[in-house]
Amino acid sequence: MSIFAAAVARSKSGWTASELDLSGLADIDEVVDALRDTEPDADLAVLFVESDDEYLAILRLDEGEDLRVFGSDSAFAEESRIGSVLLGEVETPALGLDDLGSGDEDDKPAEPDADPVGDAELLGDLGVSAQRLLALCGMEGMLPSDVTAEICQRIGCGDEMEELREA
């Protein structure tokens, strides 16, 4: 499986982005340590893990301690060792689109065939509602990299992520 993992971290000096190698990490605690190490003084760090243009996992770490996890599809945990490390302990399904109520038509996926898991609200305070996140993940033609780019633009680190991808 092809994996791209990028962390964005926000500190007093602004956002930074860096690529992470998750291949040698054995469990979620090691992933959290690697995320924490990207910017030790960060008040917020978000890890985007894209796999084979099919799956996206997002991990959010507040103040280096409070971990929240979202996965675009529970199948990622079954089909990949990295997916299992990231999503293996996530037991709760993400809010279903039916649970989110009515919203903007742009926030409705074309055909929801994935089974999102975890905390879909993890970026709500940054301007990406659970409804928007689930819609982005379920939108026909949207690759995980497209979802990551859209989220990063909304939360204020789009330029940093774009520079990282181009490096």
Explain briefly what this protein structure is:
Residues 101-118 have a biased composition (Acidic residues). This protein is α+β, with helices and mostly antiparallel strands.
Explain the overall architecture.
With 167 residues, this protein is an alpha+beta fold. It has one domain (3-92, 112-166). Helix content is 32%, strand content 23%. It is built from six helices and six strands, in the order ββαβββααβααα. The chain has helices spanning 28-38, 75-79, 81-87, 130-138, 144-155, 158-166; strands spanning 3-11, 14-19, 44-51, 55-62, 66-71, 117-118. It has a six-stranded antiparallel beta sheet with strand order 2-1-3-4-5-6, sandwiched between helices. β3 and β4 (55-62) form a beta hairpin. α5 (144-155) crosses α6. The chain is globular, with a radius of gyration of 15 Å. The protein starts with a strand and ends with a helix. InterPro entries: tRNA_Adeno_NH3ase_assoc_put.
Strand content: 15-25%
Helix run count: 6
Main β-sheet, spatial strand arrangement: 2-1-3-4-5-6
Q: Note poorly predicted spans.
A: none
The oligomeric state is: single chain
Q: Mean pLDDT score, rounded? A: 90
**Percent helix among the residues?**
25-40%
Biggest β-sheet strands, sense, barrel: 6 strands, antiparallel
* Structural class by helix and strand composition: alpha+beta
InterPro entries: tRNA_Adeno_NH3ase_assoc_put
Organism: Actinoplanes campanulatus
Biased composition (Acidic residues): 101-118
Region (Disordered): 95-120
